[in-house]
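Tokens in:
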């Protein structure tokens, strides 16, 4: 089992930036594909992006492509989500998740472990 703890959320004005971190423990981090999801009030959980074990492959949802960047530091057991040009519609609870799959899953069911999430609020 993997323990995941997100940090870095907060309140930011539209057009601003935030960087989220997700620290992992309990399993060799470099064996995990990592994903980011978000969930806004009254909406279903939405895939944001995923990064492969080595970090060489990254896939983003169309809604964040060009604005968000996912990276990882396997030496620090941490995955990051850099969010730029934030919009009010980006407001949500952001969660990181870990998958044992080699591919880059886009659906929550493919991820075995989840963090508690961190709130991101973008004001207009």
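Residues out:
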């Amino acid at each position: 089992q993997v323990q995941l703890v997100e940090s870095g959320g907060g309140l930011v004005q539209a057009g601003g930036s935030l960087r989220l971190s997700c620290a992992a423990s309990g399993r060799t981090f470099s064996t995990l594909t990592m994903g980011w999801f978000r969930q806004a009030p009254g909406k279903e959980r939405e895939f944001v992006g995923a990064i492969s074990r080595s970090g060489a492959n990254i896939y983003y949802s169309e809604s964040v492509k060009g604005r968000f960047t996912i990276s990882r530091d396997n030496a620090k057991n941490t995955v990051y989500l850099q969010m730029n040009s934030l919009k009010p519609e980006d407001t949500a609870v952001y969660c990181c998740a870990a998958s044992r799959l080699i591919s880059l899953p886009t659906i929550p069911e493919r991820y075995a472990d989840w963090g508690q999430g961190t709130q991101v609020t973008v004001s207009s």
